[in-house]
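2024-03-11 09:14:02 INFO worker-7 job=invfold-0412 stage=load source=structure_tokens
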């Protein structure tokens, strides 16, 4: 698992994040997690890149709890157990991609 925290004052737009992933050779897609929603014990068979475009996301990745905010990025290795929760009052919009 690799986490990159956004440090700049201005956060990138969803379009900027899509362009970043495309430049890395990854086909981006958007995932919206509604307030109060929780996706438990998800595993995917490929490395997952997730960047927060709007809102916040609480992740539990293999027992490690992390709060990601706008602009933060995480790379989750294939087949790693993860739970995603939006505990805020607004939608969390993530720009995601899968590395085979």
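2024-03-11 09:14:09 INFO worker-7 stage=emit residues=100
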């Amino acid at each position: 698992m690799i986490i990159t925290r956004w440090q700049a004052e201005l956060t990138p737009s969803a379009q900027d994040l899509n362009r970043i992933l495309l430049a890395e050779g990854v086909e981006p897609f958007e995932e919206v997690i509604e307030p109060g929603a929780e996706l438990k014990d998800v595993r995917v068979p490929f490395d997952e890149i997730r960047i927060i475009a709007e809102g916040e996301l609480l992740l539990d990745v293999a027992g490690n709890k992390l709060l990601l905010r706008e602009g933060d990025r995480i790379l989750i290795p294939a087949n790693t157990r993860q739970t995603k929760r939006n505990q805020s009052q607004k939608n969390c919009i993530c720009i995601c991609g899968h590395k085979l």
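2024-03-11 09:14:09 INFO worker-7 stage=report msg="The mean pLDDT is 93."
2024-03-11 09:14:10 INFO worker-7 job finished
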